[in-house]
Specification:
- The chain is of the alpha/beta class.
- The chain is 46% helix and 18% strand.
- The chain is built from 32 helices and 33 strands.
- The chain has a seven-stranded parallel beta sheet, sandwiched between helices. Strands 27, 28, 29, 30, 31, 32 and 33 form a seven-stranded mixed beta sheet that branches.
- Helix 20 links the parallel strand 20 and strand 21.
- The longest helix has 61 residues.
């Protein structure tokens, strides 16, 4: 029977651990208290047949139990790679398929070095907030700080987020929609649906759903979000300005359903990122409640908000404030010009006749309070000024619907549900939803009177004939002249043309530019085709035509000329169009031309808006988002249609809007100067240090070669195969390989074979269908996990031969050092070599080695035997030094942590002091009135409950912060040890 001692490491059926206590039995046996590697306490009789001592690394050193050099090397490499992205808090920039810009690194770097990773990212459109959030997510995952991630975005952006995370970071997220959630509920009816996946993307309007039926016992998706047992490690809200809460007249909080989603997620998340290009829309209370999701104690009231107080809570860069290493601006100018078009007599008559038809039926719809029919007329008016072909198609559809008796009195339920968002927030609808609504609206009529329906049919037929008879679209003709002139001057020039409707795109493609090879992007294209079209435009095609449905995610800064064939009646979408070209990497002035029909209210209004906005942006030093913020509460659809309905003169309408713009401009200027932070980014000055971070991250501890060597060594040792599948200059076998994975690794997320894989980031960026074997790839992570398991790989002890100038003999001990926060999480770790000579001199300098001796070649010599006999003593020296280093390591972190927590504590104390003081004042007033014979028992009781709740919340928050201050060094973990000699054993 083995006698165990406290401190022994043991393995048993189902696990392993350390003996922490021993109870001696009367029969001479032992009851072992074992603290397992899973963090559980087990009690095991020592006489069990399957329990045995695991020799420690020091025991193995003393007994000269030498492992194979290859296993030792695999274990050390794997440990170094495992810690590579936790060490020194430097960003990992090598695992993705994109070129990350320095200012994006700087944003992520600031967030990752913050106390709690809760930030509002308010960068302008075109700076890549998605990429910044993606870097933070990837870093937290790589550092072992995140497993559960939630991304909440407007519905049209959910698929884009999924594709960006997959294509750029090789991370697979599941989109939660009605169908997905129902499937999960059926498979696991008793489990919270939000805990069934770890990487989730969902839309804000799906997440806000609550049960309409009070009799239902089903937990709604919103309530399930509110009641998680396992919180999110990081949550991201895109377009976070949709999370709106207001202060009521009685000082109460009026929350939208979307805001309640924000509260539910914020309360159940460790890290939280809010992304928006319009963080402050002129409503101080709304901005206050948005910021409160990140830190509820930062400000007690919106009146307290000031830029200094946002310094460690918000990042906001404007294009005008960003500079390159040579001091030049990162973003060039943009030059916007209007190209007015005179209508032909036939076009003018069609415009007037269709507008008269629209005016009449729009007014009738307003009278009968038929909103749907009103929307129908708005669609026709937009398509009328888009192109002759677009209005012709609309009239044709209308005619067919009436002829087929398809005019419906009631819209389908799904369309009726979408109508409110379609009218006020069209950007929150997906392409499919918008098309569904507009198709349904084409069938709506104002009246069901049969004779009136026939009268409308006759009228629509006449208008359709007029449209069909017009052979030349004057606006299209001007566009053709504009494009031809540019391509004549420079046949290699690239021109991006935007239009709102697919019908107009098809007309331009098939009729106007039939003699050109056109690249095209519109809503129905799948991602592969979309990528191909973008590649064609960059490489061989001169013209791309795109619809608004597809403009998100188009990064086309290799072009600099854009023509808006029509302007959308949405300020946000106008901004987003410009952002396709006016973004980082653009080296030339962006030339934008807006085509419009002269003497039409809608075109004149839109053109004025663009011109005025351009001027305001220039004056305020902003490049985007201005139009949307100026027209925050202005419904352009209503404004334009009201002008048409009332037949108001164009100059009068334009003058009214001009006045509104000037008022809003002043408010915007106040917000910019008094409330919002504005970060300058200058690579020639204070921000140049970020270039060092990037350099260290890309060429530091871990390289592509390190990962490839580890994989190749492992495959050689455990029966895998790597063969080149295409020749190339990078290596003898090329840079794309077929990987046949060893059986010990395949399974779960690791495939048995990868037909095309690369270790080279540049190849991965150029070829989406090639698997990128980077550090965070499941194959590499699985391989590292295998190598860290000493029972499977061994590799703990080696004999190494040092270079001539190394003091020998000695033992090299390699330690894993780290510390944990008060909350119990491992904050950071690093790998530290400690070399102890036989004279007990200790150094953190790793010796230079010339060879590692296989166990079969190790023979007993006096030097080796003496060194092995000193293993425990030399280990004690190394252990003392390891503790000294980890405590110093933790002291630095503790000082920083205490500083950060102290700031949080001051904010919390101030917040609760003001809240409690206010309620104490109310209570005194209620009690005073009660003494005057007025029954105030109800408000007195409420005030006492509020005070009790506030004091309890204050005490809990201050206790939590006190706990967070602590930083505790972890016990140094010995990973490997090497007996170091000057000559191989057996040689003199």
């Amino acid at each position: 029977m083995t006698n165990f001692e406290v401190g022994d490491h043991v393995k048993f059926a189902g696990g392993q651990g350390e003996v922490t206590k021993i109870e001696y039995r009367p029969n001479g046996g032992q009851l072992l208290h074992v603290y397992t590697t899973e963090g559980q306490l087990r009690k095991l009789p020592s006489g069990l047949p399957h329990i045995e001592r695991i020799d420690s690394i020091v025991d193995r050193l003393a007994a000269r139990q030498i492992d194979s050099p290859i296993h030792h090397d695999l274990r050390e490499r794997a440990t170094r790679l495992d810690l590579a992205y936790r060490y020194d808090r430097f960003l990992s920039l090598t695992n993705n398929r994109i070129e990350i810009e320095p200012y994006q690194v700087q944003a992520a770097y600031e967030i990752l070095n913050s106390y709690d990773h809760r930030y509002l990212i308010g960068d302008e459109v075109g700076l890549g907030k998605t990429i910044e959030a993606g870097i933070v997510i990837e870093e937290l995952i790589a550092r072992g700080r995140a497993e559960r991630v939630l991304i909440v975005a407007p519905a049209p952006l959910t698929v884009q987020w999924q594709e960006e995370m997959r294509e750029k970071f090789d991370r697979n997220f599941v989109i939660y929609d009605r169908e997905t959630v129902e499937t999960h509920r059926r498979s696991h009816p008793n489990q919270n649906v939000w805990e069934q996946e770890d990487l989730i993307i969902t839309s804000i309007d799906f997440a806000k759903q609550t049960n309409d039926n009070p009799e239902s016992d089903r937990v709604s998706v919103r309530d399930a979000l509110d009641n998680l047992d396992v919180e999110w490690d990081i949550a991201v809200f895109d377009e976070a300005h949709h999370l709106t809460a207001r202060r009521g007249s009685d000082d109460s909080i009026e929350r939208t359903q979307r805001y309640t989603v924000g509260e539910a997620v914020a309360d159940n998340s460790d890290a939280l990122l809010l992304l928006t290009g319009t963080p402050h829309k002129g409503k101080s209370d709304q901005f206050y409640f948005l910021v409160s999701l990140l830190d509820p104690y930062r400000f007690s009231h919106e009146s307290q908000i000031h830029p200094d107080g946002l310094d460690d809570l918000m990042i906001r860069r404007l294009k005008d404030d960003m500079y390159e290493t040579d001091g030049t601006r990162m973003f060039p100018e943009k030059n916007i010009e209007a190209l007015g078009v005179d209508m032909s007599p036939a076009e003018r008559k069609l415009y007037d006749d269709v507008t008269e038809y629209i005016r009449e039926y729009y007014n009738l719809a307003q009278q009968e309070e038929n909103k749907a029919a009103g929307f129908t007329m708005v669609i026709y008016q937009k398509r009328l000024v888009s192109s002759i072909y677009a209005i012709q198609k609309s009239l044709e559809n209308r005619m067919r619907a009436i002829q087929n008796d398809a005019v419906a009195e009631d819209l389908p339920d799904d369309v009726q549900e979408l109508i409110p968002r379609y009218s006020t927030e069209p950007e929150t609808l997906t392409d499919a939803e918008r098309e569904r609504v507009e198709e349904a609206l084409e069938t709506v009529t104002v009246t069901l009177n049969r004779s009136q329906i026939q009268e409308e049919l006759d009228r629509v037929k006449q208008l359709w004939r007029q449209a069909k008879s017009i052979e030349t679209d004057s606006k299209a003709q001007l566009l053709k002249q504009f494009v031809d002139r540019i391509l004549t001057e420079d046949p290699d020039e690239k021109i991006l043309i935007f239009t709102e409707y697919t019908d107009t795109l098809e007309y331009l493609r098939d009729q106007v530019f039939a003699d050109h090879d056109i690249a095209q992007v519109y809503g129905d294209l799948d991602q592969d085709r979309r990528r191909q079209e973008m590649a064609d435009f960059e490489n061989e095609k001169n013209i791309m035509i795109a619809t608004d449905a597809a403009q998100e995610g188009l990064n086309l800064q290799f072009a600099h000329i854009m023509a808006n064939f029509d302007l959308p009646w949405s300020p946000t979408r106008i901004d987003q169009r410009m952002g396709r070209l006016h973004r980082y990497g653009q080296e030339r002035t962006v030339e934008i031309r807006n085509l419009f029909f002269k003497n039409t209210r809608e075109s004149e209004i839109l053109n004025l808006l663009v011109e005025k906005t351009d001027q305001i942006e220039s004056d305020l030093g902003m490049r985007s988002d201005v139009l949307g913020r100026i027209l925050e509460d202005v419904n352009l659809d209503d404004t334009i249609m009201a002008a048409i309905a009332e037949n108001r003169p164009t100059d009068q309408v334009v003058a009214d809007i001009d006045e509104t713009i000037e008022e809003r401009r002043n408010a915007l200027e106040t917000v910019e100067n008094e409330f919002l932070i504005r970060d300058r980014f200058d690579l020639s000055d204070e921000d140049e240090e970020i270039l060092d971070v990037i350099e260290r991250s890309q060429h530091g501890d871990v390289s592509e070669d390190d990962i490839e060597v580890l994989v190749r060594e492992f495959f050689d040792e455990f029966g895998g195969d790597i063969r080149g599948v295409r020749p190339g200059p990078a290596r003898a076998g090329g840079d794309v390989f077929q990987l046949d994975v060893p059986d010990v690794l395949s399974g779960n997320q690791v495939a048995g074979r990868y037909d095309q894989a690369t270790f080279t980031r540049q190849v991965a960026m150029e070829e989406d269908d090639v698997e990128f074997i980077a550090l965070d790839h499941p194959l590499v992570q699985s391989l590292i996990e295998f190598c860290l398991d000493s029972n499977r790989i061994g590799g703990q002890v080696a004999v190494k031969i040092a270079a001539d100038d190394t003091p020998t003999p000695g033992i090299l001990f390699t330690y894993r050092l780290g510390y944990v926060s008060g909350a119990g999480e491992a904050v950071t770790e690093k790998l530290v070599p400690l070399y102890v000579t036989s004279e007990s001199d200790v150094s953190a300098e790793k010796p230079e080695f010339v060879d590692t001796i296989p166990p079969e070649e190790v023979v007993s010599t006096p030097v080796l035997d003496r060194l092995a006999s000193m293993a425990k003593d030399l280990h004690s020296v190394a252990e003392m030094e390891a503790w000294k280093q980890v405590e110093s390591f933790a002291d630095e972190a503790r000082e920083e942590r205490e500083r950060e927590v102290e700031i949080k504590r001051q904010h919390a104390e101030q917040h609760f002091k003001e809240e409690i003081s206010e309620w104490e004042g109310r209570l005194e007033e209620y009690q005073r009135q009660d003494k005057q014979a007025k029954d105030m028992s109800a408000p007195i009781g409420n005030a006492k409950r509020q005070l009790e709740s506030l004091r309890r919340e204050r005490d809990e928050e201050l206790s939590r912060l006190e706990e967070e201050k602590h930083v505790t060094p972890e016990e140094p973990q010995l990973v490997t040890a090497s007996l170091v000699l000057s000559n191989p054993p057996g040689e003199r």
